[in-house]
Amino acid sequence: MPFYEHTFLARQDLAPAQVETMTEAFTKIITDLNGRVAGNEYWGLRTLAYRIAKNRKAHYVMLAIDAPAPAVHELERQVALNEDVIRYITVRVDALPTEPTAMMKRGERSERGDRDGGAPRGDRPDRGDRGDRPDRGDRPRREDRPARAFA
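User: That's the sequence. What structure does it adopt?
Assistant: Structure tokens below.
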């Protein structure tokens, strides 16, 4: 059977328990049609890049699915009918993920050091010491500069 990743965004005013209930209902749809949900990840209540149906935030949930195409079509039909879901996407993948996604690894950033993985800020070269540009010298004081003529 083909593998899919199905991600949906639920309205911000739902409780996490309600989102979990929706996830279980969607899982039941897949299992009733001879498929299986290999895993699900709740990514939490996150801020959207832009407003969607008057929502500034949404609950993100990702399902890893191993199911035939008709089961996925029925899942998408049921998700589209659900008023609590504001967006969804289903993507066919070559293999199901075996480790947590990047969204779940966000909390482990403190172990890596700073954000870009480079040297700590104290060990970076001085930004003002650029060899490719000559020194412009000090700016003249305001009183010493000539007055600008306006046309």
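The helical segments are 16-32, 69-81, 109-112.
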